[in-house]
Specification:
The complex is a heterodimer of chains A (249) and B (440).
Chain A (H helix, E strand, L loop, with lengths): L1 E10 L2 E11 L4 E5 L6 H9 L5 E9 L2 E2 L5 H6 L2 E4 L6 E5 H15 L7 H14 L10 E2 L5 H15 L3 E5 L7 H14 L5 E6 L4 H4 L4 E6 L2 E6 L2 H9 L2 H7 L1
Parallel strand pairs in A: 3-10, 3-11, 6-9, 9-10
Antiparallel strand pairs in A: 1-2, 1-4, 4-5, 7-8, 11-12
Chain B lengths: L2 H14 L9 H17 L15 H5 L15 H5 L7 E6 L2 E8 L8 E4 H7 L1 H7 L10 H9 L4 E5 L9 E7 L5 E10 L4 E10 L5 E10 L4 E9 L5 E10 L4 E8 L4 E10 L4 E10 L4 E10 L5 E10 L4 E10 L7 E10 L5 E10 L5 E9 L3 H8 L5 H18 L4 H14 L11
Parallel strand pairs in B: 1-5, 4-6, 5-7, 6-8, 7-9, 8-10, 9-11, 10-12, 11-13, 12-14, 13-15, 14-16, 15-17, 16-18, 17-19
Antiparallel strand pairs in B: 1-2, 3-4
The chains are: A alpha/beta (249), B alpha/beta (440).
């Protein structure tokens, strides 16, 4: 599904990613952990097409296509979804409007008719319940005045409605109390399927107690320095990042 | 202004004066004569005046707009007019500067409340009009006010007596259809103690050049509530000069929504004088495209203690349009415990668009809470990327964000029919590719 090969990325003249290799198959859940400044967010931004990153070497292939050639909206329409670390507030655009615009962009891209208004509303209301979001939030401006937890739940709601093939969760657990974390994790788990893959980027091991990954990778100094199963996350939690950094050096 | 140009208007006035309403009223003759003299002496405002330094009105001096009417109101395209007519409102239609009985609809107006054309008001209730006319603003404010007092040919007179609440809004629909016409109207709105009403001023017109000059004097009594809306959607070649001058008594509430959409050159002045513990809320949205010039001036006079003022003006300027915002808040020495906030936010969509913004706080009291802020900027790149990551293409994302920025002001309007009308005006003036109106 996703194949990252020898990916080098600069911000300005400064190299941030220095040869990242990662293979994700359909249905797999990969966690990327690492210390601050390791390049975790850069990786998620490059995959979703944010401007300001310069790929100097390597390739990213998604569903047998060159992902890096695509505009951000094309990636999104083809099923790459980024749950933002800091979801943006958009006053004046309602949540429900954005959800409908996004879903219909995908459908149009796939050559399908616009979603029926009643079907759409029924589907949204169903997902809203799952994420324990108040229906009133649908009619409020996107993320405006939402608490940290509400913003993150809203990101997962969007994923639930857009049904992506690859879900990138950028520090989705940061800023969440334990109750909010559980709700978000339940939401993520409900989205897991044999076809849908996840790339979870996190600083802490906590999220991985609730969303159990198939693989854990450690990103440090712009490279994946260690990979393993879920037990690696526990080891990192116990020993800290310095241990792998030293091992890699 | 050269003598020649001034002569054009003063000469023209000699042909017009005896056709204006209130000929038999001595006090009004005096008002008009004094105003005419003031204008003859001063001429139109010049760029040398601080309050006019960004707005050049020389075009209207050079071109003579005439109040000589040669069109019949029955030629008016009713279907077109109905697009701007609000359902569920009492409507006073003024066509080419004159009240049109044919197009107006005041059905259902309670006997206790007066909603009249200015001509009828001067005829039926001259003493009441005399009590208020020129009492909220004087000639010396600027010469457009004097011009208006001398020239006005009609307008709206509203009197809501104490404790009366009018559940229907009142709409004045001001239409100009004659090319090169000079339409000068005067509105007087009186809301007595504890009364409540909503009034909508709507300005529309044809595709030819014309000049629309309006002064609205407003009196909000003790503990009374007035919500006043203005939708200025004049034709593309029109000149619009509007002034709204408000006197608020203690504990009163005045909310103004000022939508400046149309005209080649448009200027708005909104002034309010606040008595003890009164509140005003001034909202504005100006949209400029092509070579439009839209100027908004507000002045809030905190004259007495404990009053609250809130102000938010937003501007969106595209192509070569130019916007001006000048907002003054004056807190008198006596106005302790004043609570005032003023904000002006501008979005520039092209490199050639321009805005001049000048918030001014003048504070003479020492125990007050006053804040002001100004922003001038482009669309937020983070927001654009967020929308793109949600499958929306960049052009649509830009259109959505522009729309959203402006729509915040439309959303504040509580009257649904008016909100729908404003929404349509908004969408018609900006790129709307990718925006689905049905979803809004």
């Amino acid at each position: 599904m996703l194949s990252i090969e020898n990916l080098h990325v600069n911000v300005g003249d400064k190299p941030i990613l220095k040869g990242v290799n990662l293979q994700i198959k359909p249905g797999e859940v990969h966690a990327i952990m690492g210390p601050n400044g390791a390049g975790k967010s850069t990786l998620s931004h490059v995959l979703s097409g944010k401007a300001g990153y310069n790929v100097t070497e390597g390739s990213v292939t998604y569903a047998a296509e060159n992902l890096l050639d695509m505009d951000p909206e094309i990636r999104a329409r083809k099923g790459v979804f980024l749950a933002f670390q800091y979801p943006v507030e958009i006053p004046g655009v309602s949540n429900i409007y954005l959800l409908k615009a996004a879903l219909n962009s995908i459908r149009k891209y796939q050559g399908l008719d616009e979603v029926d208004a009643m079907d759409f509303l029924a589907m949204v209301k169903d997902k809203v319940k799952l994420l324990q979001i108040d229906e009133k939030f649908l009619y409020r401006a996107v993320n405006e005045g939402f608490s940290g937890g509400e913003k993150k739940r809203n990101e997962i709601l969007q994923a639930a409605i857009l049904e992506p093939k690859l879900c990138i969760l950028d520090e989705t657990d940061s800023g969440l109390d334990i109750d909010a974390l559980k709700i978000v994790a339940d939401g993520v788990n409900s989205l897991r399927s044999a076809e849908r893959s996840f790339l979870m980027i996190t600083h802490y091991q906590r999220l991985l107690d609730y969303v159990i990954p198939d693989y854990v990778h450690v990103l440090a100094h712009g490279q994946i320095v260690k990979s393993g199963g879920p037990e690696l996350a526990l080891e990192l939690e116990a020993k800290g990042y310095q241990w792998v950094e030293e091992q890699a050096a | 202004m050269t003598a020649q140009h001034l002569n054009n208007y003063t000469e023209e006035y000699k042909n017009t004066a005896n056709t204006l309403p209130g000929q038999s009223l001595g006090w009004l003759k005096t008002i008009r004569a004094e105003a005419f003299e003031y204008f003859s002496d001063k001429g139109f405002p010049s760029l040398r005046e601080e309050e006019w330094r960004y707005t050049n009105v020389s075009a209207i001096e050079k071109k003579l707009f005439s109040a000589q009417l040669n069109l019949d109101e029955s030629e008016l395209d009713k279907q077109w007019l109905n697009r701007f007519r609000l359902e569920d409102a009492l409507t006073v239609v003024v066509v080419n500067g004159r009240f049109s009985k044919e197009h107006s609809n005041l059905e259902g107006l309670p006997d206790t409340i007066s909603v009249l054309s200015m001509t009828d008001a001067l005829d039926q209730q001259p003493e009441l009009v005399e009590k208020y006319l020129t009492k909220a603003v004087s000639n010396s404010e600027h010469s457009f006010v004097a011009f208006n007092s001398a020239w006005f040919s009609d307008g709206l007179f509203v009197h809501v007596p104490a404790k009366q609440v009018l559940d229907k809004p009142i709409q004045i629909l001001h239409v100009v259809t004659q090319a090169d016409f000079l339409a000068t109207t005067r509105n007087v709105l009186v809301v007595d103690a504890m009364a409540e009403v909503s009034i909508i001023e709507t300005f529309v017109g044809g595709d030819d050049a014309y000049l629309s000059a309006v002064v609205t004097e407003v009196f909000v009594g003790e503990n009374a509530t007035l919500t006043l809306y203005k939708m200025q959607s004049e034709g593309d070649k029109a000149y619009h000069f509007g002034g709204t001058y408000v006197k608020q008594q203690r504990d009163s509430r005045f909310t103004h929504h000022n939508f400046a959409f149309g005209g080649l050159l448009a200027r708005n002045d909104i002034h309010t004088d606040l008595d003890v513990a009164s509140e005003c809320d001034l909202n504005g949205l100006y949209l400029g495209v092509k070579r439009q010039h839209i100027d908004n001036h507000t002045r809030i006079n905190h004259e007495k203690p404990h009053a609250i003022s809130r102000e938010l003006y937003k501007g969106v300027l595209n192509q070569r349009a130019r916007g001006v915002f000048q907002g003054r808040v004056i807190v008198a020495e006596d106005a302790q415990k004043t609570d005032s906030e003023m904000n002006n936010r501008n979005l520039l969509l092209s490199n050639d668009a321009e805005v001049d913004t000048k918030p001014q706080l003048e504070i003479y009291a020492d125990d007050v809470k006053c804040a002001h802020g100004v922003t001038v900027g482009q669309l937020d790149e983070k927001s654009i990327f967020y929308l793109q990551s949600r499958c929306v293409d960049e052009e649509t994302a830009r259109n959505m964000l522009t729309f959203a920025f402006a729509n915040e002001m439309v959303d504040k309007v509580k009257l649904k029919n008016l909100r729908d009308l404003l929404l349509l005006q908004l969408l018609n003036r900006f790129p709307q590719a990718g925006i689905d109106k049905e979803w809004l």
